[in-house]
Specification:
Keywords: NAD, Oxidoreductase. Helix content is 34%, strand content 17%. It is α/β, with parallel strands linked by helices. β6, α6 and β7 form a beta-alpha-beta unit. α3 crosses α6. It is globular, with a radius of gyration of 22 Å. The protein binds D-malate (MLT).
């Protein structure tokens, strides 16, 4: 019987696929496999029996990859399984970065009494004005499943979309709309685009990618979205640029104490993949991967 330790809550739609040959739970010690979503395994002591870890999500920065390689532990993730969910939240982020939706909603909450209906029209309409997305340039850094989903959706909104990924061209990216333009380099994205959205993993190369130097190349009033990983952005440099008005809005799915409650910064608590559909998809894919490996030795990262 194989033993699977759960480090987070994982959708039962996936767990049901294990069947009777598996013992699955949070209190298992000598596990053959681990299923994890957001818990960090960096300080976790792996038992000698552990053969595989599957992450129900795309990023693997909560797993000590080098240690796993040294110890022969296979690591799986679920690329694409939550791409639609993240894409939808990024579209929401684009609108939040542009139209003064949050400011308007917050202001309405301050209203009281019967005079407020006229105030709504008077102040609301004139004060909370923000540009449309149609015709604006969107730069996408990272052309994996999520970047491609976002690019295709933004094309449908009438945006002029540029994609950049050091490892793959727009033409070679799977499922990419032919209307997306290939940016030759990151500088093109920085200097040309009105909106920039990050969809790259957190690696040595991408850490601090958005910093004073890259911000200086950007247009005044640029809007930046980060639904990838918090450390792709140097938050000190971003906050300084937001205060100066160089960055009109920074929208991120990664909360940290320095960026919460700042004007023109919208912070969400890592909600990108938080839909039942995406949780089911990720769980199904992660369970199939780890099961296949434990039963047949197949390494198929879906
Ligand atoms: C991901 O890496 O795909 C996300 O972090 C998934 C999640 O929210 O758990």
């Amino acid at each position: 019987m194989n033993k699977i330790k759960l480090m987070n809550k994982i959708s039962p739609v996936g767990l049901d696929l294990f069947g009777e040959q598996y013992q699955v739970g949070e209190d298992i010690d000598d596990e053959d496999g681990i299923l994890v979503r957001s818990a960090s395994l960096h300080d976790y002591t792996f038992n000698k029996n552990l053969k595989a870890i599957a992450r129900a999500g795309a990023g693997v920065n909560n797993i000590p990859i080098d240690q796993c390689s040294n110890e022969g532990i296979v690591v799986f993730n679920t690329p694409g399984a939550n791409a639609n969910a993240v894409k939808e939240l990024v579209l929401c982020g684009l609108l939040l970065s542009s139209r003064k939706i949050v400011e308007g909603i917050d202001w309405v909450k301050t209203l009281e009494g019967k005079d407020d209906a006229s105030k709504l029209v008077e102040k609301g309409k004139s004060q909370f004005v923000g540009p449309e997305l149609e015709g604006k340039k969107l730069g996408i850094i990272g052309l994996g499943a999520i970047g491609v989903h976002v690019a295709n959706a933004a094309i449908k909104l009438g945006m002029e979309v540029y994609g950049f990924d050091p490892y793959i061209s727009v033409n070679a990216a799977w499922g990419m709309s032919k209307w997306v333009k290939n940016a030759q380099n990151m500088e093109t994205i920085f200097s040309e685009c009105d909106y920039i959205t990050l969809h790259a993993p957190s690696t040595k190369e991408t850490k601090g990618l958005i910093n004073k130097e890259s911000i200086d190349m950007m247009k005044d009033g640029v809007r930046i979205l980060n639904f990838a990983r918090g450390d792709l952005v140097n938050s000190t440099d971003v906050l300084a640029a937001v205060k100066e008005g160089k960055i009109a809005k920074y929208v991120t799915d990664f909360a940290s104490p320095d960026i919460i409650n700042q004007e023109n910064v919208i912070v969400m608590p890592h909600l990108g993949a938080s839909t039942p559909e995406s949780e089911d998809n990720c769980a199904r894919m992660a369970v199939k991967e780890i099961k296949d490996y434990l039963e047949s030795g197949n390494i198929v990262n879906s």
